[in-house]
Specification:
Radius of gyration: 22 Å
Helix content: 25-40%
Number of strands: 18
Strand content: 15-25%
Largest sheet: 7 strands, mixed
Strand order of the largest sheet: 4-12-11-10-7-5-6
CATH architecture of the largest domain: 3-Layer(aba) Sandwich
Mean pLDDT: 97
CATH superfamily of the largest domain: Type I PLP-dependent aspartate aminotransferase-like (Major domain)
Structural class: alpha/beta
Shape: globular
Distance between the termini: 37 Å
Low-confidence stretches: none
Length: 452
């Protein structure tokens, strides 16, 4: 079966002849801004393996950028979607009720670790929509106009979330952006300025929030602080738990809501169903949680969860939308959660993560170009630098490694503020043989790319 195969390139060139034709059509009909550097035109996929139109097999360490935690073409999910499609595709939840939406909301409030005894959930279509809706709820509840986000943050590409997102390459020529979005320093410990002692790191980063209060908006004007428990585009940087505890204290002191953006880190990716479960171990819960990506195995769906008190502060008509909580997506999501719990994919994520971390750390001992390795569970980043002492980023080498991997049947993707991190997001159903083969290809790519 395809899901058990190893990567194999059978064409003399990549892209192959059939893929080249499709890619040329893409260039003609699709905007260049929707970039794609990979020489792949997918024909079929199962598990962690992609079969292209020329018969090449690629091992996917990208997983749809965190969408495919249960892998491609999971048969049980396919069956429930087919079953739902036979009944109806669409039922707009603002005008009529469908059971899948209600059942999924009920399930989510039992597993999402947000504050409150009574909770509610509702759905949108994308991570950006979820984040923007979470801010809308926070503003409705607090009656405050501003929010705080962080350096390295990625929250989406809508007009409002472009302002929330740190890297402004994602917002080129889009100004003026939304106001009332202020930025503090995210605790990227690897790149903390020299001269600051480790025991002072938390104070240094928390102080940047107080700088925002001083320079941008009084705390009484801040509705929410939005943070990724593990930054994605920012370079796969986990939020240190000691900092999270201090952040929660700041929020509680000034009645500011804490929003956890788990769009990429949710659904077993980090070794827990949600990365914020690690927060709970330290006595911390977010007020609002957003999630998307792997929630429905690839069908567009995102979710917002908060306490009943916070949710019911929103005026009628402010939230909801035509396609939000689509019946096909809700049925898929219910099955995804069932499979994840039944097959204990959170534990599998930890097992995969240990193998990858051990291998990456061994590589770090051998290759001076690796500056840092970090992550949670099977959400891991490896950072490449020109010099370990100066920590100067090496985006050129990083891109070279990515392309060398692709040419040998392994798909990996970059990340990071400086485009010098490669992320690991392989489906959690990857086989042991595939995982080890992928890591072998990855190390060979590093060796070859260094020698160029």
């Amino acid at each position: 079966m395809l899901k058990d195969d190893l990567p194999k390139i059978i064409t003399d060139t990549l892209p192959g002849p059939k893929a080249s034709i499709v890619i040329e059509k893409r260039k003609k009909y699709i905007p260049d801004a929707i970039g794609c550097i990979y020489p792949v035109v997918i024909d079929r996929a199962e598990g962690a393996i992609v079969l292209d139109v020329d018969g090449n097999k690629f091992l996917d360490f990208i997983g749809g950028v965190g969408v495919l935690n249960i892998g491609y073409s999971q048969k049980e999910v396919v069956e429930v979607v087919k079953e739902q499609a036979d009944k109806y595709f669409h039922a707009m939840f603002n005008t009529m009720t469908h059971e899948g939406y209600v059942d999924l909301a009920k399930k989510l409030i039992t597993i999402a670790p947000v504050k409150g005894i009574e909770k509610k959930a509702y759905f949108a279509n994308s991570g950006a929509e979820a984040d923007e809706n979470a801010v809308k709820i926070a503003k409705a509840y607090t009656k405050r106009p501003n929010i705080i986000v962080f350096s390295g943050a990625f929250h989406g590409r809508t007009h409002y979330t472009m302002a929330m997102t740190s890297k402004k390459a994602y917002a080129k020529d889009m100004g003026p952006l939304a106001d009332g979005v202020f930025r503090a320093k995210y605790p990227y410990y690897y790149r903390t300025p020299d001269g600051i002692k480790k025991e002072d790191y938390v104070d240094y980063y928390i102080k940047s929030i107080y700088d925002v209060f001083e320079e941008c908006g009084d705390p009484t004007t801040i509705a929410a602080i939005v943070v990724e428990p593990l930054q994605g585009e920012g370079g796969f940087v986990p939020a240190p738990l000691e900092w999270v505890k201090a952040l929660r204290q700041v929020c509680d002191k000034y009645d500011i809501l804490l929003i956890a953006d788990e769009v990429q880190s949710g659904f077993c990716r980090t070794g827990r169903m949600f990365a914020t479960e690690y927060w709970v171990d330290e006595g911390v819960r977010p007020d609002i949680l957003t999630t998307a990506k792997s929630i429905a195995a690839g069908i567009p769906l995102s979710a917002i969860v908060a306490s009943k008190k916070i949710m019911d502060s929103v005026a009628p008509g402010v939230i909801g939308g035509t396609f939000c909580g689509n019946p096909l997506a809700c049925k898929a999501a219910l099955k995804v959660i069932e499979i994840m719990e039944r097959d204990n994919l959170a534990l599998r994520s930890k097992e995969i993560g240990k193998i990858v971390m051990d291998k990456y750390k061994a590589m770090m001992e051998k290759y001076e170009v690796i500056g840092d390795v970090r992550g949670l569970g099977a959400m891991i980043g490896i950072e490449f630098v020109k010099d370990r002492k100066t920590k100067e980023p090496d985006p050129i080498l990083t891109k070279r490694i990515i392309m060398e991997c692709a040419n040998n049947g392994l798909l990996v993707e970059g990340a990071g503020t400086y485009n010098n991190v490669i992320r690991f997001l392989a489906p959690l159903v990857i086989t042991e043989a595939q995982l080890h083969e992928g890591l072998k290809i990855f190390e060979k790519a590093i060796k070859k790319s260094i020698s160029k």
